[in-house]
Write a structure and sequence with these properties.
The protein has 677 residues and is of the alpha+beta class. Helices cover 19% and strands 29% of the residues. The longest helix is centred in the last third of the chain and has 21 residues.
Amino acid sequence: PPNEKSDAALRPSLLPQGAEAFAGRPGLEAYRGGRPVFVRWTSVTIFLAAEDRETEATAITVAAEDSVNKVRLNLKLSLKKGGLAMVEQTVSNIDGANGGENSENEPLTVNWLESTMPMPRRADTLTQFTGRWPLEKQPRIAAMPSGSVTRECRHGKTSHESPWMFIASDGEPKWASGEVWACHLAWSGNQTYRIDNLPPHETLIGAGELLGPGEIQLAAGESYEAPQVCFSYSATGLDGMAARFHTWLRSLPKHVSSPRPFTINTWEAVYFNHDEATLIKLADRAASIGVERFVLDDGWFHERRDDTRGLGDWVVDPEVWPNGLDNLAKHVHDLGMQFGLWFEPEMVNPDSDVARNHPDWILSPTAGRLPLQGRTQQVLDLTNPDAFDYIYGCMDQLVGELGIDYIKWDHNKLVTEPGSRRSGRPAVHAQTLAVYNIFKGLKTAHPGLEIESCSSGGGRVDLGILEHADRIWVSDCVDPVERADIQRYTSLLVPPAMMGEHVGASPAHSTQRATSQELRMAMAFFGHMGIEWNLLKEPDEALAKLAVWVAEFKKHRDWFAIDTCVHADSNDPAVRLDGMVMPNRDAAIYRFTQLTTSQTYPAAPVHLPGLDPERTYRVSPLDPSLDLTGLTNGQSTLGWWNEEGVVLTGEALQRYGIRPPSLHPQQAVLLKAVALS
């Protein structure tokens, strides 16, 4: 054996430690009284845990104790419905907890507590993610790095460029085939993702909360509960991996069960130019085409005429709204729509009454100096009970008085210098828990209230927030060309029914790209569909076309909420094929998108994944009245592209595919596959 080999067998545990001769990043790093604590367990007990029958298939708990270093660990490994593996860990300081004579009575400072899982050596490729506003969830695929490698996010939230998840694969990952191993941290604060690819043992993949210096200090008897870490394995590619996340989210008792209301959000319609008469007209026009939820965005509160002032003063501005919001909310409700309202509860403008009256409520470790501003904003210290009670009280009062059905919860500043003056320590962990508590408190006090997680678009998307939120705003970019891939990779974690997907104006606000109305509607069709559009400026023809799609969406949305989300692998980077397949595989709806010009003409056949290979299906346009004029390249629409469609087995459709219609770039069509046997 190698001369350096330890006497004990070297096999990484679920919490690998340097004291076990593990050469990678230790799963737990802590110190006491300035001295490092190298944990080595003196007792370990493993037993079956009590199951949560609604969400878990099975679970085990490991109770370990280091009697020398006075540290206790409880680790729960559970297999959730759908096959998602989840690790929950709690570390406790037992020094002096029982009044022992030899107690040092020194707090245990925890630097990190991370969860890991081993992977086989054939996992030779790593996919991670980056992005920016408004271009989220951009994959980066490369060979598995050597050594112990970490990727961190320090923005106080998941953020646009955070790792979001690590995906290991045997070769470049595919959607419908191949092995993948994924890791995701169910947490909305700072985070670390890690890979340990070292010669002596299997590769480890893992994640954990990124803690600030001295953020977690445990007195005798105190514990730190680390965020949950999720692991998803699939032998059927990325779609199989994603299905485990989707199934678990759908199994949660608090998961939304009502049909997803077709929504209009007013931001790109009026921005800060609030006027009651105009917005009532907008509500009337929205209701006339079948909209079911009307959301008033930023600009309704005290002195909020732009983004430089008023934030934090959650009082309706009497100059703009002399009748308050009561009249608009009542009008919306009388039209049969739900009423929603925008908040940014964690933020404050220095030019606001709340900041002037309570400067100590701003999250900052240093009195007399504010952190670097973003969008002329600072962060409220919600770990301060007075600030927490103020924010919760304002929101609770408005929800009750106006009958608010829905909150759009925004977060538009990176969290910098995240220290609390009250504790003198970093506060991202406690701040994140405070946010969760406001979500829980409001939804408990107002049954039926739904809350969307928005953070400059998709800047806070994770399973931590999704345990409390009812949907996420995928991106501030509603340009359908950009959305094609933003939505595709967001669906690795989030079921489409929880993804806000809106039809916007042309040209798009964020990119100034002009696109067809058909493409914009088709790209929003599978998600929680809505509008980010000033309908008062659109011709009747455009609204009539939109009304047809609204009605069509309502026919299918209950199935979309439980369908399997699938994507076809293609060697043609110019096209996308994705779809929603019924659980019983009786039917499916697919979206074929021609983003740019293909190298071949006509485009190569596209495969329809997810169908039952033993059954026969008829594939045809979703709407037989769909007008392809202007979409095709002036050629015939191909022999099968008509109301009768084409009849093939599920195996043939998946293995050989069908020839798609020849479309202009930046066009999309929907196909339906219905089983005949």
